[in-house]
Amino acid sequence: MILMREVITDHSTLNWHICTLANWHIAFSHKHSNFLPYTYCIMKKILVICLLSCLVFSVHSQDLSYYLPDSVTYDPAVPKPKDIIFHEVGEYHVTHDRLVNYMRALAQARPDRIKLEIMGFTYEKRPQVLLIITSPKNQQRLEEIRQQHVQLTDPSKSQGLDVDKMPIVVWIGHSIHGNEQSGSNAALLSAYYLAAAQGKKIDDMLENMVILFDPSFNPDGMQRFSTWVNQHRSKNLVSDPNDREFNEVWPGGRFNHYWFDLNRDWLPAVHVESQNRLKWFHLWKPNILTDHHEQGSNASFFFQPGVPSRVNPLTPAMNQELTGKLAKYHAAFLDRIGSLYFTKENYDDFYYGKGSTYPDINGAIGILFEQASSRGHLQQTTNGLLSFPFTIRNQFTTTLSTLEGANALRKEFLQWQREFYRSAMTEAAAAPVKGYVFGDDLDRAKTQTFVEMLLRHQVEVHGLKGRVTIDGTDFNASGSFVVPAAQPQYRLIRTIFEKTLNYKDSLFYDITSWTMPLAFGLPSAELTAAQLTSSMTTEKISVTPEAKGGIIDDAKSEYAYLFAWNELYAPRALYELQQAGISVKVATARFEMPWKGGSHKFDYGTIMIPVKAQTMNSAKLYEMMKDVAGKNTLEIFAVQGGEALSGVDLGSSKFAAVTQPKLAMITGTGVNATDAGEVWHLLDQRMNIPATHLEPSVFNRADLAKYNTMILVGGNYGELNSGKLKAWVQNGGVLILTEEAVSWGAQNGITGVTFKKLKAPVDSSQALTYVDREQVDGAQQVSGAIFGADVDLTHPLAYGYRQRTVSLFKANKVFMQKGKNPYATPFYYGGKPLQSGWVSKENADAVKNSAAVVVNTVGTGRVINIADNPNFRAFWLGGSKLFMNAIFFGRNIDAASGREE
Ligand SMILES: [Zn+2]
């Protein structure tokens, strides 16, 4: 939905970029196997010139004169894009490998101006290239400039710095959505311009500026999309939007390898692309960061500022003021080439996980550009023909306007960066919350992941010295951490930790809340001045302390090994053991064992590996257990007998055998790609568990007996043989349905879930004006908010949870009724479920007293219905536990507990 909202957004109604030559252009371009640049000619006189230049153009194919300012001379020794990529800019979509070749060629041709860095590699091992472009003089003292620049963000060092003498740092970034390629193709031109332009203007600019030039934010998506459009390009360009060229196959080029939207990942930084990029972002702390995108084909061009009422309240007003000052330059430059644009509409600056908003909470200014997309090479739109070169030219032009504005406003931006961090300290000093404590000593890997995320954003983190109890929650020294508020990243810390329930606007471009400790399912608490004492914390940490796992005391057992299910990687460990042929049981009851002269209590979900039940001998098993514990941060208990002090003995039938999951997920057209990608990423990257991705057509003809667990995430499954799926469940399969897949399952008689009726948001007697409909309808979207579900901690789907309330993320309108069977609803939204975020009153009422998870017994199988997205954006680790429980313990759920009476 989020994707659709961005792609379909269309606010332009004017036919502007296409002069009256449109029809002639089509005919001409077909004949000459060449598309032609649209000119912005309106007057007849210009039309004639346009005609002539078009003719010349077609003879010499596409050349750079269409794009580049003609007032500049260029160093002939610098290769032009075509010399390296073999086609003109805009003629084809440049592939990522050729783009990198060109960047390398420029760095070789102008080492005095350009330094090429590899920030890291994508999942598909493509390099993430960063060009550092500045004057030859600055290149000589680059590290000195960097260090001095970073001092601006440190209030203890920024006082004496003379910004007058400092270059501004500008990050130019392109096409984080892989199928919005006018950005990365414009990067060919911008890089050429910066390498080859000659004269006082460019010299002056490079002297005052360090440009961090990122030609592709999403190399894997770029390669996928460029391959698609190039392979479907006809010599005689076909502009019919129905053509295959404009209609990519699932999942499309927007996403990264795991089908994630990288433009939501700047804050959670789950992906390698974001992690590599953030490292360089904080190495340099740019003043401006541009983010070149594309919007729906019928629109014009957007640049920020966005909708004023939808700026995140943590972003200071000065940020938007400077954004507005820079906007004057974009407007002037686009005016000059006759391109229409809009601003202060549609887009916002709210979610800090976006590339144009993340800089705003880091003392910089992020700028979103949205060009109407030609998607392929030439497309018919409501505004006439839209050519790829035209879109590239607008992107290139706004890079030029950004650089010109940055140069002119240099001192203001530098001063703002210093002031941003100074005022952060002042605000922190005045705030009642002096810090946050968080952590779970029974889930150290998850706590570690959280600390790593904080360190990526340069948040200062300290260890906890001794055990504390805050607001009724215990925090142990091992596994808990403290973040003091009084530090330069104060505002960013607030956006990570705070819950929000008050909003200025009810429309959101993306999610409304992302409180990270809730998302991670980590205990956390705010600290007052009295609570946060200097003796409470250790020195600040610079790397995450590695949590170690192992068998306690390295003890070998001849009887049984036990480990708790709380740890993030417990499922990974379990799967590895099963893969090695080890038989494993899970405790469905609590028990207490003698331990070191005392006792130890084991909770629901404890995993038991009986030693003598294995085909593997005890010595080999011991080595395996040690290895698995170490890799997965597990603390394993080696017990020497089976008699419990209280609760069940180890031979009790309350220990249930756990079958190894054999997984398949339905993927392909209709399936929500990001939801499916989240499952793929969770299983593959975090859990080392393979799953078959089944296209509906393959599902319909495949033998399903080899799978015991099937996953359907949000989406439309019209092509799927629902009868076959139902028969598979009846024969004992575990079917996991999330979000809209639950509705599909109910419609097709696979699940017995029923849904709550939504109250009409507007009663018909209310007087509404037509113009308000966008606001009224938009407010009824569930853009994404956090709800706390009450959990039955004894249920197999709740194994490993300790807190009675689990925070789940809702961004849909699936409101399930509680199951008729009293044991069928292990996760339930009570009377006050909203924890953080915005949702309309009608939707809030619908969530109240609705079911978050319902289990149905169907034949000998189970259907596990999860109303929300438990794996949201791969940082919702608090929900992923539920999802992994469904995979491992779904078939352990007692059949009677899921039967409708
Ligand atoms: Zn985009």
Descriptive overview:
The chain has 901 residues and is an alpha+beta fold. The protein is built from 26 helices and 36 strands. The strands form 8 sheets. Strands 29-28-30-31-36-35-34-32-33 form a 9-stranded mixed β-sheet, sandwiched between helices. A hairpin with a 2-residue loop joins strand 10 (378-381) and strand 11. Helix 5 packs parallel to helix 8 (182-196), helix 8 packs across helix 13 and helix 12 crosses helix 13 (388-408). The longest helix is centred in the middle third of the chain and has 21 residues, at 388-408. The protein is globular. The two termini are 36 Å apart. 54% of the residues are buried. Mean pLDDT is 92; it is low at 1-61. Zinc ion binds at residues 6, 177, 180, 293.
Nutshell version of this structure?
With 901 residues, the chain is α+β, with helices and mostly antiparallel strands.
